[in-house]
Amino acid sequence: MKIIVVAVLIAIVAALFAALVFLYRDAGRGKRVVWLLTLRVALSGSLVAFLLFSYWMGWIGAGGGR
């Protein structure tokens, strides 16, 4: 469970950093920045939904343990 959460958090930060790189590289003319920021929002929403579902199923508790 922890590995999934950490992996998604790393992917969110990587998408945010890549969007910053493309913002400077494309000077605002490309669509890569918008696509990467959309990906970041989708990953964030998916992570929140996964954590809520995990709590609902009883896989995680209020303290983070089983």
Tally the helices: what do you get? Answer: 2
Topology as H/E string?
Answer: HH
* Unreliable stretches: none
Radius of gyration, in angstroms, nearest whole number: 15 Å
Strand content: under 5%
Largest sheet: none
DSSP summary, beta strand count: 0
Structural class: mainly alpha
How many domains comprise the coordinates?
A: 1
Residue share in helix: over 70%
The shape, in one word, is elongated
Query: Termini separation (Å)?
Result: 11 Å
The average pLDDT is 89
Q: Can you characterise this structure?
A:
By secondary structure, the protein is mainly α. It has one domain. Helices cover 77% and strands 0% of the residues. The protein has two helices and no strands. It has helices at residues 2-26, 32-57. Helix 1 (2-26) runs antiparallel to helix 2 (32-57). It is elongated. The mean pLDDT is 89.
Question: What attributes characterize this protein structure?
Answer:
66 residues, mainly alpha, 0% strand
Task: Furnish the topology, listing elements before pairings.
Elements: H1 2-26, H2 32-57
Helix pairs in contact: 1-2
Summarize this, please?
By secondary structure, the protein is mainly alpha-helical. Helices cover 77% and strands 0% of the residues.
